[in-house]
């Protein structure tokens, strides 16, 4: 977490869960929400003499499903693209959804267009809503994947992650 790598799995998971980090340093202790903690590429809210001492994750409700889908060459590699999905189910539909993307920008990114499209919707809307997963992202091209391939993966893996979250 303290490294702040946007290709790491846990930063996106923390953002989807709306977790927070407890930071301790010479000036005392403070708490920072995950979405505020990751500031830029390999840059976090940690000061020079601060460390993360605790990670807090809110308890999920009984009607909440989750999933993390990751596409990489080998299982332990950094993600070319990863998707963390937390979906609150309501009356056979979707109450709300929180989707965070790995390797789609300089920090973990929430897929807000997908979240809005899914909230209050039905499971039948997942495939269509997932098509906007790459909106507002800025994936890089490198030896692992092109930016366009990462955009495609974000749409595909978002659909799969949300479908799995709904099945739990």
* End-to-end C-alpha gap: 27 Å
Q: What is the third-level CATH name, the topology of the largest domain?
A: Enolase-like, domain 1
Mean pLDDT across the residues is: 95
- Please report the number of helical segments: 5
Spatial order of strands in the largest sheet = 6-7-8-9
Tell me what the structure shows:
The chain is an alpha+beta fold and 168 residues long. It has two domains: 9-56, Uridine Diphospho-n-acetylenolpyruvylglucosamine Reductase, domain 3; 64-167, Enolase-like, domain 1. It is built from five helices and nine strands, in the order H-E-E-H-E-E-E-E-E-E-E-H-H-H. It has helices at 9-17, 34-37, 112-118, 126-130, 147-167, and strands at 20-25, 28-33, 38-40, 43-44, 51-56, 64-71, 81-90, 93-102, 109-110. The strands form three sheets. The protein has a four-stranded antiparallel sheet. Strand 8 and strand 9 form a beta hairpin. The two termini are 27 Å apart. The model has no long low-confidence stretch (mean pLDDT 95).
Descriptors:
168 residues; alpha+beta; Uridine Diphospho-n-acetylenolpyruvylglucosamine Reductase, domain 3; Enolase-like, domain 1; 2 domains; 4-stranded antiparallel sheet; 3-stranded antiparallel sheet; 27% helix
In short:
The chain is α+β, with helices and mostly antiparallel strands. It has 2 domains: 9-56, Uridine Diphospho-n-acetylenolpyruvylglucosamine Reductase, domain 3 (2-Layer Sandwich); 64-167, CO dehydrogenase flavoprotein, C-terminal domain (Enolase-like, domain 1, 2-Layer Sandwich), CATH 3.30.390.50. It has 5 helices and 9 strands; from the N terminus they run H-E-E-H-E-E-E-E-E-E-E-H-H-H.
């Amino acid at each position: 977490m303290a490294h702040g790598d946007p290709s790491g799995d846990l930063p996106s998971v923390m953002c989807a869960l709306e977790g927070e980090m407890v930071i301790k340093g010479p000036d005392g202790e403070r708490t920072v929400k995950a979405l505020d903690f990751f500031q830029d590429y390999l840059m976090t809210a940690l000061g020079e003499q601060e460390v993360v001492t605790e990670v807090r994750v809110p308890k999920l409700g009984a009607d909440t499903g989750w999933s993390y889908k990751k596409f990489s060459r080998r299982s332990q590699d950094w993600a070319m693209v990863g998707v963390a999905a937390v979906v609150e189910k309501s009356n056979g539909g979707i109450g709300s959804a929180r989707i965070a993307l790995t390797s789609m920008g300089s920090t973990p990114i929430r897929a807000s267009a997908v979240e809005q499209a899914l909230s209050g919707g039905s499971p039948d809307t997942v495939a269509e809503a997932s098509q906007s997963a790459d909106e507002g992202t800025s994936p890089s091209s490198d030896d692992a994947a092109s930016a366009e391939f990462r955009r495609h993966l974000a749409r595909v893996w978002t659909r799969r992650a949300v479908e799995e979250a709904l099945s739990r």
